[in-house]
């Protein structure tokens, strides 16, 4: 897997770097964790500070393009939308465990 940084901008106001990248690969499409690891190795940053915003693959090509944000502090990630953070944590699409229903109260009988 070979990663290329297409654009790297510093956003001092929000305390992050905004990176556009392209990844060439062989075989199956890399997931967010593999892309995050490749960015970590290329840029030398803590993977906890990387948020992969999107990844898309042009049809029929063995490469993906995407955008990522690298925060200076982990608290900065609170600026991200909830669905993006859910993807990052791997909880998107997973349903919460069903809670057992509360026992029904019996209706008092009328006299």
Descriptive terms for the model:
111 residues, alpha+beta, four-stranded antiparallel beta sheet, globular
Structure description:
By secondary structure, the chain is an alpha+beta fold. Helices cover 18% and strands 32% of the residues. It is built from two helices and four strands. The chain has helices spanning 32-43, 82-89, and strands spanning 2-11, 16-24, 50-56, 63-71. A four-stranded antiparallel beta sheet has the order 1-2-4-3. It is globular. Residues 95-99 have low confidence and may be disordered.
SSE layout:
Layout: E1 2-11, E2 16-24, H1 32-43, E3 50-56, E4 63-71, H2 82-89
Antiparallel strand pairs: 1-2, 2-4, 3-4
Kindly report the spatial arrangement of strands forming the biggest sheet.
1-2-4-3
Q: Report the span from N to C terminus.
A: 78 Å
Point out poorly predicted stretches. 95-99
Give the number of DSSP strands. Answer: 4
Beta percentage is 25-35%
Major sheet attributes: 4 strands, antiparallel
Structure described in brief:
The chain is an alpha+beta fold.
């Amino acid at each position: 897997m070979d990663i290329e940084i297409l654009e790297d901008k510093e956003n001092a106001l929000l305390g992050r770097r905004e990176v556009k990248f392209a990844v060439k690969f062989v075989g199956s499409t890399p997931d967010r964790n593999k892309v995050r690891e490749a960015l970590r190795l290329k840029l030398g940053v803590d993977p906890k500070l990387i948020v992969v915003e999107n990844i898309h693959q042009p049809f029929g090509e063995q490469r993906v393009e995407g955008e990522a944000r690298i925060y200076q502090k982990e608290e900065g990630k609170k600026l991200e939308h909830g669905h993006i953070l859910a993807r990052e944590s791997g909880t998107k699409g997973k349903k919460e465990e069903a809670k057992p229903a509360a026992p029904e109260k019996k209706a008092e009988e009328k006299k």
